[in-house]
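S.,

As promised, the zinc ion run. Input:
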Amino acid sequence: MPLKWLSDYVDIDLCIDELADRLTMSGTKVETVTDIGDRLNRIVAGKIVSVSPHESVGRLRVATVDLGPRQARRTLVTAAANIGRGDIVPVVLAGGTIADGTEIGEVDFSGVRSEGMLCSAKELGISSDGSGILRLPDDIKPGDDVVSALGLADTVIELEITPNRPDCLCMIGIAREVAAITGATLKMPNTALKEGSERAEELISVKIDAHDLCSRYGARVIQKVSIGQSPIWMQVRLSAAGVRPINNVVDVTNYVMLEVNQPLHAFDYDRMSEHAVIVRRARSGEVIVTLDGEERRLDPEMLVIADPGSALAVAGVMGGLSTEITEDTCTVLLESATFARQSVWRTSRSLKLRTEASSRYEKGLDPETVPLALDRAGHLLEAIGAGVAASGIVDAYPSTAAVRVISTDAARISRRLGVDVSSDDVADSLGRLGFSVRVESGANKAKSEGGSLVVEVPTFRGDVQEEIDLVEEVARMWGYDRIPTTVPAGAHVGGYTYEQKKAMQAKTILTGAGASEALTIPFMSVADLDMLRVGQGDPLRDAIRIDNPMVEEQSYMRTTMLPSMLVAIRTNINRGNRGVCLFELGKTYFPSQSLKRGEELRRGENPAVERQVLVCGMAGAYTPRIWHTRERDYDFYDAKGVLEALLEGMGVDGATYVQTVRPSFHPGRTASIVWEDRELGVIGEVHPDVSEAYGVAGRVYMFELDFARMLEAVDEAKSYEPLPRYPAIERDVAMVLPRAVSIADVAELIEKTGGELVRSVTLFDVYEGLPVPEGKRSIAFTVTYRAQDRTLTDEEVNRLHEEVRKALTDEMGAVLR
Amino acid sequence: MKEMNDKVEAVVERALSAIENAHTTAALEEARVRLLGRKGELTTLLRQMKSVDPEDRPKFGALVNSARETIEKELDERARVLVAAEKAARLELERIDVTMPGRAPRIGKIHPLTRGIMDITEIFVEMGFAVVEGPEVETDYYNFEALNTPQYHPARDVQDTFYVNDTVLLRTQTSPMQVREMEKREPPVKVVVPGRVYRRDQVDATHSPVFHQIEGLLVDHDITFTDLKGTLAMFARKFYGEERKVRFRPHYFPFTEPSAEMDISCAICGGAGCRVCKQEGWIEVLGCGLVHPNVLRAVGYDPDELTGYAFGMGVERLVMLKHGIDDLRLLYENDLRFLSQF
Ligand SMILES: [Zn+2]
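Predicted complex:
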């Protein structure tokens, strides 16, 4: 938003920082403040006194330029052909700079010294036209500073306009805000017209066939059109606002759109059959070639502007090529209309065609601006000599939009804000923003439920729907910073849920056990399940698919935590971290029954079953190379150790580990984690094919726990067991057994045989290799015996221990050592 | 007698000298045996008792005993010194290099985002908020419709949404939990909701398709804008520090009215303007407002009876600001060299 342009509609007495701050604090956030044209330096107007061809270089011309009474004439060399005696042109003097910052010096062109440079519009940053020297208007005199004469130096503010305020997407809207916060007066643009004798309504007809999609359609006819460049001042302003100048008619439509936020479209009147405008739905399969040269296939959900023969434009989105304005255009039909924003939204998306016009229509426009925009455009076209407006406009506006009236009172507004605002404050704030506020008389006030103020909402404020919207308007005019702070009374008991507390506890235990917390993106793909060797028909394949994923690798919600953990491990290993131990407490997602069947969900129902799953993975070096410990890699028992520490710390007693086979895990190194016949999860070495597929070199160990199920196993009410009062007696037992006999089974037999006097059975040695025969291993336990009520005697323990040894030999075939 | 006297004295003198010359406990022990043992000089002297005049014998005995006492005392004294010296020498030999690294149990780290969520929610828990969580796979109704954001609403545009089907999506905000909690609870409702949210943003230094938000909601009788400001200003002081300034700017969210954004003064430049705050001196940290009456109506609350405020903040942004992290991607790569810094 160039400030010079803005100043046409409101006087700005504040310095830019103050203005920016006031706008920001009243809800129109200033994102950036940029000075433009500040690189232009030493550029003056010059009058060409003579032009002659360069003596030795044919394409160059040598001009003598008068720079006014205070400077000597200069000689300048140019390649441009569009200059002649008497032209006023911009001259960069030697030592000056042009828009892109290039410094211009004196240059020798084959014997002719150029004391500077003649500039094109491009070099001044006005437009992209670098084809010839810019010709300045006659009111600029030789020697004048071009930058100030053309207003090239300006301050441009970039604003964040929230989606509820489309009225602020234009000069008038911002000028109105500035006026409201500074107390200045809003000045509306000039719409005075000369108008020709012919009446517009005799030249064209307008018929709206789809009232639901078009509430107002206004048209004005411009005659005696001569297409050319728009004046420099207009080009300068459009450029500063970020719009490229094209020709006078198009520039005026853009200029008016930036002024009053009403897109205008210009049709070549002579190429419209019967000069009849029909606003209708597109026919199924109807085709139009739009201005960008693309052929567009339309459907009946879309609105078109048509003549009796064919569609001429996609309403609110883009015009058609057939009625494009060209150099030969003599008569122009200007369209100013209000289209249903939903329709434009849908059309522009289904055509994948977003334009300046469509993005404005999508936000909703004020139908009352339709004639204003037509009159303003007519005025400008006449003023710049681009044509003459025919008399009047054709305005199809079947049902005038009702003026919204909201009743309120200061007390109700005060109650929402928590500060006392008076009726006068309310009336003043709203009045400045263009609302009209009427105070109800005493008698009416008593009767009316609503309140003592009746507020008429201006049509450009479609966002103000009810009383609470007025509260915001009053609050932002009052100033959010002037509203004091309080802390709401009332005792509330807040806090974390049981699950949240346990989650934090689990994380604390795991970090204490050496694992760091990972957070991953919970997407996966079908390829992940293939890489995990998950079979067809496996429940893990019953995943929620995302309809519009960004990439195929992220097209499903994960049903297992393994893929993201494997990727995290790979990242670490690939980056040279020697060992990695990570955990994540995340979610897996399965479709609910209703979602699977495509049924409508009940209110409050969740579309997915979202399970909390704890995964922990480790790979690479368990210990770094360090002086006190031999270096070794992670193995299964490290993972199991972390798991055991976790379960112990969480208060889960009695978990057992049952050898099992799972597709993603090593067939001989995997266990199901079982608690009271329920599986809490799986632990094992990741199947080498899986880790290979994920690009992880070396072995990976992992466990996955269903967190909710684990919490069910937590014993929160542990009962105290008295500390032992009598001494324990330890006895060792060592034996050789086949490898296939599990340690758990041996320990169980010892406990069973020893009975309640056996307090613990601890495996203290395992040995395989010579001299132990192949397929067997030597194992050794310490058995601790203790009674609760007496001191055990040696004989008693010896007897019991002998029974244990006998049982091991008899029932397991152990060879005792 | 004089002769004997001299002999005793000579023995004592030699003994003291021998004791003094013993430099180890072993040498001293040797001296002790030589001086006081059965073949020791003093014992030998005592054997000469017979040759002493009987009259002088008691005197002589006393003399020898006194000499023995003197020697024993010296021996003990010297032993104490030598034992202490030898212990000191041994301890000196046991000197270790205390700068060598210890055998530390390996410790993992909590993810900085989790830490951030805990830090933020704890502040609200102290203010009496309950922490609740909700579904990430959500319905259009809860994510948009009930939050006063019907189809074609301009606000839907700024958040590109992942859809599962026409009515099911990945939540773009934690705000749907406002509605779910109000449906579930009797007022007053006072909750904060941390959780994952999803938007179709290309991954770059400040964007990720998945990120975290914390939502807050208080609905009760007579909740006003001053309450909103008071609660959030208190949060800002506790989370960012007493010295940071806070400001509220009008803004727009479909489900709050009036709406605001809260900024805090930039800690890097103190408000003067720098790269981190994009020269503004302020950093936007959260969006907030009074709960829109349409949201209250959607859950069957009477907006004339009940009012409330809501707020929401992006956790990644706050955590990045707090730790000076310049690339959001680091938060999801899980590189231990990054994680171990927190
Ligand atoms: Zn700063």
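Chain B touches chain A through 94 residues (CB under 8 Å). Chain B has two domains: 2-93, 112-339.

- D.
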